[in-house]
Queue: 3 jobs
Job 1
Amino acid sequence: MPAASAFSDFVLLLVSAAPKLGLPIDVVLRDAALPPAALRQRGLPISLSAARQIWSAAERVSGDPLLGLHTAETLDVGALDLLDYLTRNSTRFGDAVGRSIRFAPLLASAGVLSLKVVGHRAHFRHFSQDGVPAVSDLIAGLTVLRARTFSGEDIRPLAVRFRHRRERALGEYERIFGAPVEFEAPFDELVFDRELLDVPFRSADPRLCELLEECAQARLEAAVGAAGAAPAAALPGFLDEVRQALRNCIADGNPNLDRVAEHLGMSSRTVQRQLREHGTSHRALLTEARAEIASRYLASQNPTHRALASRLGYASPRSVSRALRRP
């Protein structure tokens, strides 16, 4: 993304974890400058400053200096939506890390993630100039904990470093990471033995991962367009009506513009014009709808690429990839 941005998913992570953490989320969100839909809809552009404010408020209200780590422990698989399913179905730990870096902007793009291999060491780094400590802890915690869950192996870094200052309960960091932890470093960093990047994931489904990558890329492109469109607060109910019509038309197997306009009781030309006025298009919303349907389906216990294709109304998995590239 050309500029730092954030999306509603970044806040919904905290909302999802709040009940288990005993966090009064209403208090945390009381002064947040969020559009109402941000607590219901994924992929909605929100102010980066508002997202940071919410995570900082959560740290303060919870009284837990390790809120980010405890959030990482609490989040069920699927809370990160496509990011979770992409990493779960990756073949190796290294592939999962690469996809996390590539699609992290689906949550927020304020920080820079990178993976660098030097000799026998792999360095996974995160840097954010104005980062929130809880978010740094969350990223590091999720990376290690998800790797253990998906591989079935006790993956441990050789070293863990954070840019923020040391907080209380150092033992909690060491308990979670199983490695020495340093603070006030130039950037957040997990250092692994290079060979760990080749650890296979037992949950891998390469073909499903390929389809999910198409979904994630489509959502990323749609999110980039949405971030540059009109402010979310200015979008009236028309877009919601179009989205619902698209869902209905996808279920019927024909989501083209004429069919959507028919559902809305409008002409195709009028629908096109109003979509342009709202800074979007039939193609962009169709891509968004398909990605949404796919990601919702993935919340089932045993998703497969063939079942995913069926849910989207296509005869074969290959058709899903084609459909996500063009309406």
Note: Residues 229-236 have pLDDT under 50 and may be disordered.
Job 2
Amino acid sequence: MRLSALFRCAALGAAVVLAASIPAFTAQAAPAPAKVTFVQEWPVADGFWIPWTLGKAKGFYLEEGIDLNIVAPPTVADTMKFLGTGRADVAFTTVMDIIFAKEQGAPVIAIGRYGSGNNWGIFTPQGKPVSVAGLKGKKIGIYNDAWTKAQLSLVLKSAGLTLDDVQTVAAADDTVPLLLQNRVDATTGITNAEGTEIAVTTGKKPEYLAATAHGVPDTPIFMFAGNQQWLTKNPQLAKAFMRATAKSIRYAIEHPDEGTAAFAAQYSKAYDPAFVKQQWQDTMAILGTPGKDQLRLDDSAWSALLSAITDVGIVKQTLPAAQYYTNDYLPQE
């Protein structure tokens, strides 16, 4: 018995010595997610933001190693200022904002589209359709920006008219009240913003004169853009951002009620349930089919737009189309 105990003690001592000689292995903590600042196109939250609001809530960005910081700009003019100066890494913006920023030499570039085409046009009350020629002498509500005037100029040109043939009434932030208060005969806007607002407010779907049927290029209005210096330094992070965004868009389309609920939870003060629910329905209609081509940009759309805005003098000189966008950061599946 004593010999057996001695052997056990010896074995135990050897095990202790052996354990002491083996380096200790400790579980390494996962790296902290990288902060990515994502500036928006508008100072107030709207239904366009549903995919990334939902994606952040679902953890899609964290799964890609991203701590997403969604920032609203002080004014609509600040989005590209934030991106161009590096105060934001990526942006949700418009195609014309990118073009104007490039004209000023800002280091920005489109990295994906949000929508499959141009859904801008002219709205009139239900039962009061209007032709382009019929706009002569009419009052038209507009936003006082270059792209609105450019699109309206192109539409009017298709009927041999110019801006001098109509009376434009500029709205500070929303053209719809001008129409609903009968201060204008028609108003400009997009189907999933002004078109949605008219339908929700009046309970009647408005008449819609599509600009693309009258000389305006079918180029998507909204884009994702990146600061080129940040993109160069963080290519894998940029790809991760676009993967998470593509996943978020797909999920929000497949789960619209969950998307509007996530938006309501995050932006309750700016949230009108009826409007945002309908806005997301109207937005889904123009986003295209989820897949590897949903966010893909192409030369033909950009070339058509650049040619059109040059013809009407919006910009004096443009760059080759390929210098305004890249598909390098899009998901390949």
Note: Residues 271 and 294 are 27 Å apart (CA to CA).
Job 3
Amino acid sequence: MDVFEQNTKKALPLVRASVAAPVVAALRGAGVEPDTVLNPLGVSESQVMDRQNFLPHETIYKIHQAVADSTSPDFCAQVGQSIDLVRFLPLGDTLAAALTLGDFFTRYTQAVSKESNAVTQSLLVENEHAYFSAKRKFKISVSPGQTDAFLASIWISLLHRVMDFRWDPSQIILRVSEPDVLPRHFHGVQAIKCSPQGFSIRFPSIWLSRQLHPDALENPSDLTNTDPDLHAPQDFLTGLQSLIRIHLGEPGFGVDELARLCGFHRETLNNRLAPYGQSASQVISGIKLEEAKKLLGPGGKSVGETALRLGYADPTAFSRAFRKWTGMSPSAYRNFTTGRA
């Protein structure tokens, strides 16, 4: 197998957190404060909106479900139908340059590969039919029904806008895990129930030659993409470190909470880390030390502020931990890096 045992057999299934951003942003319009929905799931609005963050896929499924529970069953799908594709999708400015629907899907499937390390999206053309599909490469324990409804709504609505008066819903076959969470009048499309391991849309392949107009993507002409060129972590340890950084400032964050976020038992998490020669506690401590050194560096934070940023309510506890890691106090380290005597 090699390549470090294929990145220790399986990467932690992560996806860019901002895939949930549109439905979270829409909550305020529905009179719901986002953090009242997100905080019970262990995430915040700012974490979801930050495109540099990656979260477990099942956390995203929980977010979409919690949003629907706090609003209406078809809320996520309704948001998907009205989304600005260029602002939402990866490399939106590149997608906006597509001349045809086929060109758009080709560009999209290439761009989206960096958004997740555990879900593939593809376009397949067979004679008179084209198939756009998403497949999960991990075993799920949380229903992705609301997430699939949100994503399927994006694509069905795009097809509807591109075809305009030529739209014929009878030529669409949509398969999703929970058809009931789609709007009652879904551009005339009747969805079919399928496995929760993915969703698919079949439509006439001739549609791929249809020209794209800017209004089909709801794209402002002056929009430019400034998102970081950041790939979903392909290695288990790298993915775990990414997840730790998101939650590092939460009081009491430790191995048990990290294991819960990953969907593992504590022992399973440590077993997955054994090939790296580290325990979960050591990985967390390593990230804390790394972040502490950055915060205490020249022009950085005070010891008290650094302690709070790392989830320590008591600066003394942070000082004890830092001394254990480095052999010196945070104050001594700060003075050393700033050149003070």
Note: Residues 111 and 234 are 16 Å apart (CA to CA).
